[in-house]
Amino acid sequence: MKTAKTSHWQRLFSYFAIFFGAFAGTTFGIRLILPPPEIPVVTPKLTTFAATKQNYNAIFIGSSRTYRHIIPSIFDAELQRRGYNITSYNFGIYAMQLPETYFLLQQILAMKPPGLQYVFIDIDSVNLDIPKENRRTDRVISWHGWQQMPEIYQLIGKQNQNWRKKQNLMQLHATPFFSNIGNLGQADRLFALLAPATTKSLNPGYDTAYKEPGADGYLSLDNEDDIIFTKQRQEYLAKLDDYHAQVATLAGQEQTQKTRRLQPYEADIIQKLVKAVTDAGATPIFFIHPVLKQEAHLIEAHQKGYIPILFPFNQPDKFPNLYEPENRYDWYHLNHKGAEEFTQLLADEFARYCHLSLVTCPLSPDK
């Protein structure tokens, strides 16, 4: 015989089951109805590549430095001149750090580009912090789904931090995850779908100032006219003495000097990147932009075999032109003139590997 107390808990459980069932059904229905969010730069690049993926056998993926530094038309032309049939696409995305790079690479490889042979990877920091103003943007929410969260939490667990900091990071990443699975903040997109003439986005995000990338994925910072970029350049030009001092400090450091050690979570995600590329039948090639850091942890990763091929261009003594102010846009980026020179140097280094048979490169049809 059921007691009144048992019956009460059964009813309560039923109400919760109905509520969560209705919630799950509603969120799933909204996900089916709504198209994927339009994420500046990311969506145009994914769309373009999906439609033309059969045309490329090489891609460059990484941060804004890849986006602003590598000109596929110059890279391809130089390799063609040397007798190698390379056609490439620039998948650089501004402000993209290593975890997001990995998840974007998974999306690209899921398209199964038929002729992909080389993936050039720009290694930026494995920083799992997310600026407060970005945590509810469509871009951050998009890489916090069911598939990504276990890997994000694994990375957090391997960080050399105390438990309190790890707990804070877990809570930080839970916010965009719940927004993702619950379609939170998508009401404006739903209304826009139902009444497109009268509705505009209520949460455009922090990145609406960025222009559309070029057809090959490249866009010079010289072509951006937003105040954010001009301010960065003005600050750089006002502190050229400090810049030259940092370049001199970098030039004085030995490449083997251990200014920063490789961390376990960094080694882990680097190995995942390599495995994802090799499992797709392509060759991973890592490179370092002409930054103002030694990046000793990446040299260590290469020495330990985690990074099979590494092209380091952060050497002012070896590549002095890349550090000349006339070739820089700001502290962190080259301008278009600098991008032309950097792309040429990258093509030279890759061609050298082709010539020495350190990588297998397809010959041009006329060779």
Q: Which parts are unreliable, with pLDDT below 50 for 5 consecutive residues or more?
A: 190-208
Query: What spatial order of strands do you see in the largest sheet?
Result: 2-1-3-4-5
Number of domains: 1
The end-to-end distance, rounded to whole angstroms, is 88 Å
One letter per element, helices H and strands E, the order comes to: HHEHHEHEHHHHHHHEHEH
Approximately what portion of the residues adopt beta-strand conformation? Answer: 5-15%
Indicate the mean pLDDT: 83
Q: Rg to the nearest angstrom?
A: 23 Å
Query: Largest sheet, described in full?
Result: 5 strands, parallel
Number of strands: 5
Q: Name the overall outline.
A: globular
What features would you describe in this structure?
The chain is of the alpha/beta class and 367 residues long. It has one domain (36-357). The protein is built from 14 helices and five strands. The radius of gyration is 23 Å and the shape is globular. It is 49% helix and 7% strand. The chain has a five-stranded parallel beta sheet, with helices on both faces. The chain crosses the membrane at residues 12-34.
Features:
367 residues, 14 helices, 49% helix, globular, transmembrane helix
Task: Give a quick precis of the structure.
The protein is an alpha/beta fold and 367 residues long. The chain has a five-stranded parallel beta sheet, sandwiched between helices. It is 49% helix and 7% strand.
